Automatic annotation (TrEMBL):
Key words, A-Z: DNA-binding, Transcription, Transcription regulation
UniProt-listed Pfam families: HxlR
Keyword Transcription: yes
SUPFAM superfamilies: Winged helix' DNA-binding domain
Organism superkingdom: Bacteria
Protein name (database record): HTH-type transcriptional regulator YybR
Length: 119
C-alpha cells in the first residue's frame, strides 16, 4: 500500500509546528528580538518549564529556532528565530488573523443565539 505523498507533506509540516505552544513561541520570536527562557515564560504564563524546554528543543532540532549560550556567570541563553524559521511568518500571521476572525464570528453567533432566546 502506497502512502499519499501530499498527505505525508502536510504531516511533516504540521509535526514541525503543531502543538499547543509551538506556534505561540514562534509568533513571539518572530517579533524580531531574541528572548531569554524566562522572558518566554512570562509571555506564556500557563506553560510549564518542562513543556517550554521540550518545545524549544524540538523547534531547535527543526532549525526554526536558534539557541545561543553566552559564556558568562550566571549563564545567559537566548532564543531567536532562524532565517529558515522566518519563512513561517506569513503562515503564522495568516493563522493569527484567521483566529481573530474566528473568535469574532463565534462571539457574534453567541450574541445572536442569546438575542433569539430573549425574543
Amino acid at each position: 500500500m502506497q502512502k499519499n505523498p501530499v498527505q505525508c507533506q502536510f504531516v511533516v509540516a504540521l509535526d514541525s509546528i503543531v502543538g499547543k505552544w509551538k506556534p505561540i513561541i514562534l509568533y513571539h520570536l518572530l517579533q524580531g528580538k531574541p528572548l531569554r527562557f524566562n522572558e518566554l515564560r512570562r509571555l506564556l504564563p500557563d506553560i510549564t518549564q518542562r513543556m517550554l524546554t521540550l518545545h524549544l528543543r524540538e523547534l531547535e532540532e527543526e532549525e526554526l529556532v536558534k539557541r545561543v549560550i553566552y559564556p558568562q556567570i550566571p549563564p545567559k541563553v537566548e532564543y531567536s528565530i532562524t532565517e529558515y524559521g522566518m519563512s513561517l511568518s506569513p503562515i503564522l500571521e495568516t493563522l493569527h488573523q484567521w483566529g481573530v476572525a474566528h473568535v469574532e464570528r463565534k462571539q457574534l453567533k453567541k450574541e445572536k443565539n442569546e438575542q433569539t432566546e430573549t425574543d
